[in-house]
Amino acid sequence: MIDCKRMTLTLAGCVALAAFAAPALAQLSPQGGPVNVSADHSHMETDKATGYDITYLDGRVEILQSGRRLRCDHAKLIQAPTPTGGKDVVEMEATGNVFYVAEDQNARGDYGIYTKADDTLKVTGNVILQRGQSVATGNLLIDHVNAGDMSLASEPNSANHGRVRGVMYPTKKDDSAAPAAKP
Fold first, then answer.
1. Rounded distance between C-alpha atoms, residue 130 and residue 158, angstroms
2. Residue-by-residue DSSP string for 95-157
3. What would the CATH number be for the domain defined by 6-166?
4. 3-class state of residue 176 by DSSP
5. What is the DSSP letter of 92?
6. Residue 51 in contact with residue 80, Cβ under 8 Å?
7. Residues 40-92: pLDDT tens digits?
8. What are phi and psi of 58, to 5 degrees?
9. Are 105 and 129 in contact (CB under 8 A)?
């Protein structure tokens, strides 16, 4: 059912924008592996009251992991102390020209935030979600990362006038797997 003000997209069989983190560490990819981070400038500070480390990345930020990519103008990573004495990213925030690519889909927006506590990624602003040739627009994307479902909404005062818009293309069958015709 499609509601004019809200449309829920369930992308079964794929990890839909499993973006900023996985359960143990901040990750772009559920496969894990090393994370490559680059930016024009970075600095870190520690919040003495909480013990959290806050890392700021500014200018042409790019974070890569296992074939997935996050680009933005600015990023902030918040790391909390763990019981074993290490640090664990509990929140990642991306601002300005947020662009995320994973396999056959990507999302763009003005602002993105991942919170580990509820394993949710939110992208706001002029959101464009693309999967294959299909495209949907709105101004709030909410991805329940490990659940594999997401919703896209649009506010009444948005450019879409409160409507989620999209063009959906069916998946093409792979004709090469079809048995050869008998003569």
1. 19
2. EEEEEEEETTEEEEEEEEEEETTTTEEEEEEEEEEEETTEEEEEEEEEEETTTTEEEEE--TT
3. 2.60.450.10
4. helix
5. E
6. yes
7. 999 999 999 999 999 999 999 998 877 778 899 999 989 899 899 888 888 88
8. -130, 140
9. yes
Tens of pLDDT along 46-60? 999 999 999 999 999
HEC letters along 25-37? CCCCCCCCCCCEE
Which residues, in sequence order, are bridge partners of residue 149? Answer: 10, 144
pLDDT for res 117: 87
Structure tokens at 142: 């909410």
Going by the DSSP 8-state scheme, the letter that residue 94 receives in this structure is E
Q: Which residue has the higher pLDDT, 66 or 155?
A: 155
The stretch 12-38 carries a mean pLDDT of: 48
pTM, 2 dp: 0.73
Using alpha carbons, list the distances in angstroms from residue 141 to 69, 77, 79, 106, 159: 18, 20, 24, 12, 15
Instruction: Report yes or no: 76 and 55 within 8 Å, Cβ to Cβ.
Output: yes
CA 68 to each of CA 28, 42, 63, 167: distance values in angstroms, whole numbers, following the listed order: 6, 21, 8, 24
